[in-house]
């Protein structure tokens, strides 16, 4: 089977075939397991606190400009689940890079690996992510190896704000155990593979703009931690934060 990962800039794939552009996935289209709305999250909060939250989210959006929030980290770190919810809170589109690659190739990630190997997948991944980054602002969840590729990392640094969801081995293994669609893990003992990937990749993920612990807690708590970290990085406190800050200084 011939699998093409299309390049939207030329309209052609690696084999020179012309393929129609892949459609974009938006948070509202993703379907299953809908993330709670910000309003739902805020039940029980005073109007004042709600206003503060909205103000902070608006400031984050403003500070982002056209940049994308790019979630990076190992398989099982929660990039897609956290990314969907984060996009919903920020009222930004959510895009999953692996889903876009599959759409562009007309084949699953496993099929691409099996038919053409990892380096072919990385070439397609680099092109698809470079294209997606032109469409910011948005929340973009990437596959675990994307940020490790030098060129993909450079594109993310140029057009995105990267968030490393850092998780312990135990948490990663528990989460990936639920899916068998990852070719790198299917190739050997998942624990050994994951340990090796942690050794190789953690020093590179550490270049991310922001790092958040992806603990074994409900995803909405991780989303809250990501929003706090983004606000701190972008200098987006609320008026209340500032007053609080001034009080602390005194
Ligand atoms: C990979 C991670 C996968 C997918 C591919 C390769 C990796 O994505 O891109 O199987 O190299 O770590 P997830 O991190 O979303 O599982």
Keyword list:
globular; 5-stranded parallel beta sheet; 5 strands; 9% strand; binds shikimate-3-phosphate; 250 residues; 53% helix; 12 helices; alpha/beta; single chain
Structure write-up:
With 250 residues, the chain is of the alpha/beta class. The chain has twelve helices and five strands. The chain is globular. Shikimate-3-phosphate binds at residues 75, 79, 98, 109, 143-145, 182-184.
Low-confidence stretches: 18-40
Instruction: Give the mean pLDDT.
Output: 85
Helix content range of the residues, please?
40-55%
Could you spell the SSE succession in H and E letters?
A: HHEHEHHHEHEHHHEHH
Largest sheet: 5 strands, parallel
Distance between the termini: 69 Å
Number of helices: 12
Per-chain topology:
Blueprint: H1 38-41, H2 47-64, E1 68-72, H3 79-90, E2 94-96, H4 97-105, H5 109-116, H6 118-133, E3 139-141, H7 150-159, E4 160-166, H8 169-176, H9 183-186, H10 190-205, E5 210-213, H11 219-234, H12 239-249
Parallel strand pairs: 1-3, 1-4, 2-3, 4-5
Helix pairs in contact: 2-11, 3-11, 4-6, 5-6, 6-7
The protein binds shikimate-3-phosphate (S3P).
Shikimate-3-phosphate (S3P) binds next to helix 9.
Concise structural overview:
The protein has helices at residues 38-41, 47-64, 79-90, 97-105, 109-116, 118-133, 150-159, 169-176, 183-186, 190-205, 219-234, 239-249; strands spanning 68-72, 94-96, 139-141, 160-166, 210-213. The protein is α/β, with parallel strands linked by helices and 250 residues long. A five-stranded parallel beta sheet has the order 2-3-1-4-5.
């Amino acid at each position: 089977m011939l699998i093409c990962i299309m390049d939207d800039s030329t309209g052609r794939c690696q084999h020179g075939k012309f393929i129609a552009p892949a459609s974009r996935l938006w948070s509202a289209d993703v379907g299953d397991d809908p993330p709670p709305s910000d309003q739902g999250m805020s039940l029980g909060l005073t109007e004042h606190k709600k206003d503060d939250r909205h103000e902070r989210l608006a400031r984050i959006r403003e500070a982002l400009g056209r940049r994308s929030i790019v979630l990076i980290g190992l398989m099982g770190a929660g990039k897609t689940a956290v990314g969907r919810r984060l996009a919903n809170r920020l009222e930004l589109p959510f895009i999953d890079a692996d889903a876009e690659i599959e759409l562009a190739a007309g084949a699953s990630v496993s099929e691409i690996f099996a038919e053409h190997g990892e380096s072919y997948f990385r070439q397609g991944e680099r092109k698809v992510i470079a294209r997606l980054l032109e469409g910011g602002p948005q929340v973009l969840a990437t596959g675990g190896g994307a940020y490790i590729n030098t060129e993909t990392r450079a594109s993310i640094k140029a057009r995105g704000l990267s968030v490393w969801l850092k998780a312990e081995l135990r948490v990663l293994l528990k989460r990936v155990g639920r899916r068998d669609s990852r070719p790198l893990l299917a190739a050997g003992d998942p624990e050994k593979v994951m340990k090796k990937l942690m050794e190789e990749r953690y020093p590179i993920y550490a270049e991310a703009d922001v790092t958040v612990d992806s603990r074994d807690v409900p995803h909405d708590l991780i989303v809250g931690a990501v929003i706090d970290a983004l606000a701190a990085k972008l200098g987006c406190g609320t008026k209340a934060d500032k007053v609080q800050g001034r009080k602390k200084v005194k």
